[in-house]
Amino acid sequence: MIEPGLTGGRLDGIGVYTNALLRHLPVAGCAVAPWSWPRPRSGAAGISIGQAFPHSFESATLTDLVTPGAHRVHMPVDLFHVTDYRVVRMDCPVVASLHDALPITHPEWCNPRLRTLKNWLQAKAARKADHVIALSQFAIPELVACFGIDERRVSVVPCGVDEAWLTPPAQAAIDATLAAHAVQPGYFLFVGSRARTSRACSPPG
After folding, report:
1. Which residue range is the domain that position 125 belongs to?
2. Stretch 186-195: mean pLDDT, rounded?
3. pTM for the predicted model, two decimal places
4. How far is Cα 119 from Cα 125, in angstroms, rounded to an integer?
5. Domain for residue 47, yes or no?
6. How many structural domains is the chain composed of?
7. Residue 125 in domain
8. Which of the residues 77, 121, 170, 185 could staple to 85 if both were Cys, CB 3.0 to 4.6 A apart?
9. 8 A C-beta contact, residue 71 and residue 64
10. How many Cβ atoms sit within 10 Å of the Cβ of residue 166?
């Protein structure tokens, strides 16, 4: 596995997903060894979790492109699970979780500076992974259409719900939040990784 993603110093959606796997797979009897790609200039000192790969992802990718099929990163594991699209050839089976194809299906929702890079990384992950995990049945035709994945190489593994999300906040906290934003009951808020991603619907009648 690789390190959880960070956005503004906090875990992003992929980071939450990865962190949950790190916490729950050992409980299910799986031995988990986290690995992180070091940053080009900081090396192993710059990783936040687990063991550092011997080279940065940028360096490993360049080697991968220059010597296609001739070089594989040695991994002392039975299976490597990639959770954020950064895939290079390895000497062990690789499974990749592809969370969506938003840069292609909804480019207006993505940072234009990162859109091309993310598309390339996802397409590369789809080609090089031995198997792909989709998070829903809805995602399968999207991944097939956008990245040319053979549907037979895709399995759906839905995300779980952490118990922490099931603990309702105190009514006083709810009331204070509604008052602070001048919001009346009847609104539905959807929170995603996009800044200010929200949808509101008026109460019926």
Report:
1. 6-156
2. 64
3. 0.75
4. 10
5. yes
6. 1
7. yes
8. 121
9. yes
10. 7
